[in-house]
Design goal:
The chain has 1 helix and 27 strands. With about 325 residues, it is an all-beta fold. A 4-stranded antiparallel beta sheet has the order 1-27-26-25, with no helix packed on it. A 4-stranded antiparallel beta sheet has the order 2-3-4-5, with no helix packed on it. The N and C termini lie close together (about 5 Å). About 45% of the residues are buried. About 0% of the residues have low confidence.
């Protein structure tokens, strides 16, 4: 099925956008939009107008709203404040707030973020704040120079992806085994040998395709026309094989990417459906501007009000007057 619908915002344009069942929610304003009815709900709490990002736990119970280029976040339980979050004050205006949720193999939902240092990942239980990765912190000692960002847990809960950057700067993708991290938290403080190699390139976009495969887009460090793209490579990395399953050239930035069925969805400039193994554009929606996010560092981008449904058949792009929902299955 292929369809496109416009849902009126009714004067309440969203600041953030996530799926909430078959509806779309902005956890900052408290409003929810549905295909067959008016805007539902409204602000229950005076959440700060500076919050412009949101992420939701797999069950939908927990949410985090945050300022993408700020220090503060707020953990919610079914939309109600649970506790405040924060992150390292080392250049927060240079990269996206690092936070995500995941579901472990034993069924527990976890919150993953960097509350003390930008290179130090922590895994905790949302409800209680119990740290599952407690370990000594030696002030002033940095095992890596990573700025963790754009965190994502694989669908089966095995792997954690960080698509951040290192100083000088250059984008990197790091992958950690969550089972190992819970048993040996110190592995989160080192460069991971599980990560796809970047050689002389920098990885600027990455996402999970399934519990084994990772899509990664890299550009050359030697590009003379930064931040314009000189040459790009879209690769599919297999965790099981520890090898590239495919690599293909792709001639423009991908920006924010997400798994969409068997395809890859890029939100650079406007949504594009891409075959991850060949780089071929299967479909595109140039009438739906979705921002021009390119790199994980250095540039400050406008908030991106887009959302991909977990079932991989629908995505939404918000504007001032309408939220456009595209179904493709």
């Amino acid at each position: 099925m292929k369809s496109e619908e416009k849902w009126p915002t009714s004067g309440q344009a969203p600041k953030t956008l996530t799926w909430h069942g078959d509806g779309l929610a902005d956890w900052v304003s408290g409003y929810t939009w549905y295909p067959d009815g008016p805007v539902d709900g409204g602000p229950q709490y005076p959440f700060s107008g500076s919050y412009d990002g949101a992420t939701v736990s797999p069950s939908g119970r927990y949410q985090v709203i945050y300022h993408e280029y700020g220090l503060d976040g707020l953990l919610l339980d079914r939309g109600e404040p649970l506790r405040e979050l924060t992150r390292d004050d080392d250049d927060p205006d240079a990269f996206f707030y690092p936070v995500t949720f995941g579901r472990l193999a034993d069924g527990r939902e976890v919150l993953i973020h960097c509350p003390e240092r930008r290179d130090r990942l922590e895994i905790e239980l949302p409800e209680t704040g119990e740290r599952l990765t407690s370990r000594p912190l030696e002030e002033g000692v940095y095992e890596t120079d990573i700025y963790h960002s754009r965190l994502a847990v694989s669908p089966g809960g095995r792997w954690l992806l960080s698509a951040g950057w290192v100083w000088h700067p250059a984008g990197v993708a790091q992958v950690y085994d969550l089972t190992q991290a819970l048993a040996e938290p110190a592995v989160l403080d080192a460069y991971s040998s599980l990560s796809p190699p970047d050689e002389l390139n920098e990885t600027v976009s990455a996402c999970w395709l399934d519990d084994d495969r990772l899509a990664a887009f890299s550009i050359s460090w030697n590009s003379d026309d930064w931040p314009q793209l000189a040459d790009g490579s879209l690769g599919v990395w297999s965790m099981k094989a520890a090898a590239w399953e495919s690599q293909a050239s792709y001639g423009e930035h991908l920006g924010t990417i997400a798994r969409f069925g068997e395809h890859l969805l890029s939100f650079y400039d406007y949504p594009k459906l891409i075959d991850p193994s060949t780089g071929a554009v299967v479909a595109s929606w140039p009438h739906l501007p979705s921002g021009k996010r390119m790199l994980p560092y250095g540039l400050t981008y406008e908030p991106e009000t887009v959302a991909v449904h977990p079932d991989g058949t629908r995505f939404a792009v918000a504007a001032e007057d309408f939220i456009t929902v595209v179904e493709w299955s």
